[in-house]
Amino acid sequence: MKILVPVKRVVDYNVKIRVKPDGTGVELANVKMSMNPFDEISVEEALRLKEAGKAEEVVVVSIGPAKAEETLRTALAMGADRAILIETDDAVEPLAVAKILKGVVDAEAPGLIIVGKQAIDDDSNQTGQMLAALLGSAQATFASKIEIAGDKATVTREVDGGSQTIEVKLPAVVTTDLRLNEPRYASLPNIMKAKKKPLDKKSPADFGVDTTPRLKVLKTEEPGGRKAGVKVGSVEELVSSLKTAGVI
Ligand code: AMP
What range(s) does the Electron transfer flavoprotein alpha/beta-subunit N-terminal domain occupy (predicted)? Predict the structure, then answer.
């Protein structure tokens, strides 16, 4: 079985986001970019399935600017076998990403597609679900455990107040949640080896997908600053202040 893992290049999760002065978006110039954290989890899971003998090949794919090659090289250094870069400088919305990924799935015929539950830049949480719909395949979202047996996957999902275990028929789309695993770091020798692994370049037009945005961002704002707190002299005073404020 082949596993396809889409990985997105996003602002690193440690970066303090700054909104552009004109409010049209966030500042990306000279900002550290990294692989979306949920996609690192997806790559890790695909590698573990391969190591367990459940898959033969892990293919990673990214839709983004030329620099997304770095993100793909990181996935190759973690252990993925091959990469596909679908190069575009447009900001590609989830529906267009899902349409392009459908084209990749049609060409590659993976048995499993492991997608992050959300990209931490736009927080859309849409791509995996849309891709499953376009493929007409099963989907198991927010996975905290994946087991493969034959042509079925048993997936434990993070749901409100607990977990749910479902069985889906492969090929299927699974989206990854934080508790699924802890991604490995790429070792220096593997970073060197990754430079020589195959990376194919394509464009959205190769898949007949128009990436023109359908949404218009009207405004982007920073969260309001927190007001300074007050010191109280005793527990009694704290309880009384909380009562007065209607908190308890
Ligand atoms: P989203 O629906 O935008 O929150 O993204 C969910 C997941 O879809 C991400 O974790 C990635 O696995 C995948 N994805 C979204 N955008 C891209 C992209 N430009 N390139 C590759 N994968 C993507």
Answer: 23-211
Nearest to 93 by CA among 24, 8, 202: 8
pLDDT digits over 69-97, tens only?
Answer: 999 999 999 999 999 999 999 999 999 99
For residue 210, report the phi and psi dihedrals to the nearest 5 degrees.
-90, 120
Q: What class has domain 2-245?
A: alpha beta
Q: What is the pLDDT of residues 16-56, one digit of tens each?
A: 999 998 988 899 989 999 999 999 999 999 999 999 999 99
Residues whose CB falls within 8 Å of the CB of residue 225, separated by 6 or more in sequence, listed in order: none
Distance CA 113, CA 42 (A): 9
Q: Is 64 in the pocket of ligand 1 (CB under 6 A)?
A: yes
Q: Are 76 and 58 in contact (CB under 8 A)?
A: no
Ligand 1 atom at shortest distance from the alpha carbon of 130 = 2
Tokens of 223: 């969260």
Q: Is the pTM for the entire model greater than 0.85? A: yes
94: CA distance to ligand 1 center in Å? 7
Residue nearest to atom 19 of ligand 1 (CA): 63
Contact 128, 7 (CB under 8 A): no
CA atoms within 13 A on the CB side of 102: 18
Quick one: pLDDT at residue 225? Answer: 83
Q: Is 235 helix (H, G, I), strand (E, B) or coil?
A: helix
The closest residue, in CA terms, to atom 4 on ligand 1 is: 118
- Domain boundaries defined on the chain: 2-245
Per-block average pLDDT, block size 10, for the chain (248 residues)?
98 94 90 97 98 98 98 98 97 97 98 98 96 98 97 97 97 98 97 98 97 91 86 94 90
